[in-house]
Design brief:
about 160 residues; alpha+beta; GTP Cyclohydrolase I, domain 2; four-stranded antiparallel β-sheet; two-stranded antiparallel sheet; 4 helices; 6 strands; flat
Length: about 160
């Protein structure tokens, strides 16, 4: 079940050498492709172990790990465009909670997945780690939304 060339011709970043990395927050770099299995509920996971953004007050860098899980519907995010999008936060000044919610909302708007969640695991600053979690789902996945939200409350870190 290979993809025909016309199915992927809209992907402008994948396979291109010399792609420039965005220096400012840019959801416009995100690209999608069609889900060839829309009849199935399955999970796609991305882990970005080297996420960086800036503190909106001090401008100092914040480091963390971003984990994205989603159940696709008709569209899926292309991974190279996702990498460039996440990199675009490097000079973006926002709190950890804001970054996680922005990522979740941008991806939800882009793909309209059945379910999506984004978790940030940020390195300690001043002796405190921050682990924000945001999720959303369509009407058929509201039980999953609530269950995963409750499960996101860590007992220990």
């Amino acid at each position: 079940m290979s993809r025909a060339p016309e199915e992927i011709e809209s992907l402008s970043l994948l396979g291109q050498a010399g792609v420039s990395y965005p220096t400012d927050y840019n959801p416009g770099v995100l690209e999608t492709f069609d889900n060839k299995h829309p009849e199935d509920d399955y999970i796609v996971t991305f882990v970005c172990p080297e996420f960086t953004s800036l503190c909106p007050k001090t401008g100092q860098p914040d480091f963390g790990r971003i984990i994205i899980n989603y159940i696709p519907d008709r569209k899926m995010v292309e991974s190279k465009s996702l990498k460039l999008y996440l990199f675009s936060f490097r000079n973006h000044g926002d709190f950890h909670e804001d970054c996680v919610n922005i990522i979740m909302k941008d991806l939800a708007q882009l793909m309209e997945p059945r379910y999506i969640e984004v978790r940030g695991e940020f390195m300690p600053r001043g002796g405190i780690s921050i682990i924000p979690f945001a999720n959303s789902g369509d009407s058929d996945h509201q039980n999953l939304v609530e269950a995963r939200r409750l499960a996101a409350f860590p007992l220990t870190v």
